[in-house]
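User: Could you write out the 3D structure of this protein bound to thiamine diphosphate? I've included everything you need below.
Assistant: Certainly. Input first, then the structure.
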Amino acid sequence: MAARRTTKKTNVSGDELKQFYRDMLLIRRFEEKAGQLYGMGLIGGFCHLYIGQEAVVVGLEAAAEEGDKRITSYRDHGHMLACGMDPNGVMAELTGREGGYSKGKGGSMHMFSKEKHFYGGHGIVGAQVPLGAGLAFADKYKGNGRVTFTYFGDGAANQGQVYETFNMAALWDLPVIFVIENNQYAMGTAQKRSTSTPDIHTRGEAFGIPGEAVDGMDVLAVKDAGERAVAHCRKGKGPYILEVKTYRYRGHSMSDPAKYRTREEVQKMREERDAIEHVRHLILEGKHASEDDLKAIDKEIKAVVNASADFAKESPLPAAEELWTDIYA
Ligand SMILES: Cc1ncc(C[n+]2csc(CCOP(=O)(O)OP(=O)(O)O)c2C)c(N)n1
Ligand SMILES: [Mg+2]
């Protein structure tokens, strides 16, 4: 491995590091499998993979408590797995099968789990931002102490509705954490070509919303920042912005020719900043586990992912009558 940055010492336990490793690896292997199934024609439509960004959701989920909510964009499989949704149900939905979270009728961008407080999965860029504030409004109204993680991208951060939402969220002190997953690109447009000021965590200043930038390739840094944001919201101090600087290794979606960046740029991130390798290094360096222990985890995760693909392939397509259910007009 090329030059590895050093991480400041933390008091994180070996068990916690191993859990981070496991959770991030599940997302990566799941997404790789989804990419394969897409290539085989078993997944149709759009499919946006989360590979490279795993530390963002895993770090923030470690800062969340039972009952907290999450809502995100179309790049959503990682969020579902990180909050504990069943890989079988997610993979079956990707392949449009009856056993999927939306009975095979929603696909990659339209899955929900009330049980895990996951509110989608939204294909319209930025649309989930006001919805996230709405979820937080409901919690504030009920006085239940819950917070909502509202995830969106660097591209979405340039949308008008985001600022209408910031205004209302600040005005009403809503317990919402706006998580900007800055992966440096919005489809084929690099952030520097679309965004007047690179530090998007300062965008809340006009509304009195505090914000901070976080290294999104370091799961420990993400968890730390997440805990600060959660504490702020739970104290009733209103919204908080986390701009998590990350990187997606794959194209925008499975149909992206990726002509807007060099292979070397991607390779450099993979070799020098990979979040899973980082944790692997911390585990080995701290002697929390051996290479063989980690191999056993890799094997276990591979089995879970393979089982999800088998479950999906064996699940039938939705019955024709299902066309007439879950319709609200
Ligand atoms: C309102 C709207 N405009 C445009 C699109 C097309 N579109 C889909 S994703 C995307 C880029 C969003 O990039 P970003 O917010 O950075 O998220 P990322 O894909 O990087 O996770 C665009 C323009 C859309 N889905 N909705
Ligand atoms: Mg982006």
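The chain has eleven helices and seven strands.
User: Perfect, thank you.
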